[in-house]
UniProtKB/TrEMBL annotation:
<keyword id="KW-1133">Transmembrane helix</keyword>
<dbReference type="GO" id="GO:0008233">
    <property type="term" value="F:peptidase activity"/>
</dbReference>
<keyword id="KW-0472">Membrane</keyword>
<keyword id="KW-0812">Transmembrane</keyword>
<dbReference type="Pfam" id="PF04647">
    <property type="entry name" value="AgrB"/>
</dbReference>
<keyword id="KW-0378">Hydrolase</keyword>
<feature type="transmembrane region" description="Helical">
    <location>
        <begin position="31"/>
        <end position="54"/>
    </location>
</feature>
<feature type="transmembrane region" description="Helical">
    <location>
        <begin position="170"/>
        <end position="187"/>
    </location>
</feature>
<keyword id="KW-0645">Protease</keyword>
<feature type="transmembrane region" description="Helical">
    <location>
        <begin position="108"/>
        <end position="126"/>
    </location>
</feature>
<dbReference type="GO" id="GO:0009372">
    <property type="term" value="P:quorum sensing"/>
</dbReference>
<dbReference type="InterPro" id="IPR006741">
    <property type="entry name" value="AgrB"/>
</dbReference>
<feature type="transmembrane region" description="Helical">
    <location>
        <begin position="147"/>
        <end position="164"/>
    </location>
</feature>
<protein>
    <recommendedName>
        <fullName>Accessory regulator AgrB</fullName>
    </recommendedName>
</protein>
<feature type="transmembrane region" description="Helical">
    <location>
        <begin position="84"/>
        <end position="102"/>
    </location>
</feature>
<dbReference type="GO" id="GO:0006508">
    <property type="term" value="P:proteolysis"/>
</dbReference>
<keyword id="KW-1003">Cell membrane</keyword>
Length: 204
């Protein structure tokens, strides 16, 4: 079976041969293709889980909320794609399983969602140690987060009025996972920073 990296090579070589990009940009586009392929495999696999559970709509709601926020608030990152893939599939299964088996009333879900939105709003985004963010980007991210949280709040009120319990509960558990991921990401970042400082001090 062809590996994802090999497929990314094939696609990048194709656009280089067709002069769509310069050869010096090869690695940039290869990384883009590789990331896209891996994400597509992960999403298709998660939808496979959702189909088996009969919860395609709930899975779609999960992805809409998760991906809209994750890009801006950050979270924990796995050390390899295999770990990330396994963790993503497990999280999707657990959320869908919880939606199906751990019932919340519409009023309780609404209250919890509002509390979770406040936590995300008042918690600083998780920075990536490999990709520092300047002040201009931080302000832009903060603005985007406010916009997304406002949209989610509006969607939540609409779902509450319409009585769509499954979607409300899906948002509740998804926001919970995002918050957990943010705090785990902060803990991992702090640990990595300490390790870097200890390494620098050992050379003094």
């Amino acid at each position: 079976m062809i590996s994802t990296e090999k497929l990314a090579d094939v696609l990048t070589n194709y656009i280089v041969k067709n002069k769509a990009i310069e050869e010096e940009d090869y690695q940039i586009y290869k990384y883009g293709f590789l990331t896209g392929i891996e994400m597509l495999i992960c999403i298709v696999s998660c939808y496979g889980i959702a189909i088996q559970m009969g919860m395609i709509k709930e899975c779609t709601m999960l992805f809409l909320v998760f991906f809209s926020l994750r890009s801006f608030v950050g979270g924990i990152h796995m050390d390899s794609y295999k770990k990330c893939f396994a963790c993503s599939c497990m999280v999707v299964f657990l959320i869908l399983f919880a939606v199906k088996n751990i019932h919340l009333t519409n009023m309780l879900a609404l209250g919890v969602i509002n509390f979770e939105l406040l936590i995300i709003f008042f918690t600083n985004p998780v920075e990536n140690i490999n990709r520092p963010v300047d002040e201009k980007e931080k302000k832009l991210f903060a603005q985007r987060i406010k916009q997304i949280l406002t949209i989610i709040l509006g969607l939540t009120v609409f779902l509450f009025i319409m009585g769509y319990n499954n979607y409300l509960v899906t948002i509740t558990y998804t926001l919970g996972i995002i918050i957990i991921s943010m705090f785990l990401g902060k803990a991992k970042l702090a640990k990595n920073c300490r390790r870097v400082l200890e390494s620098e001090n050992s050379f003094d």
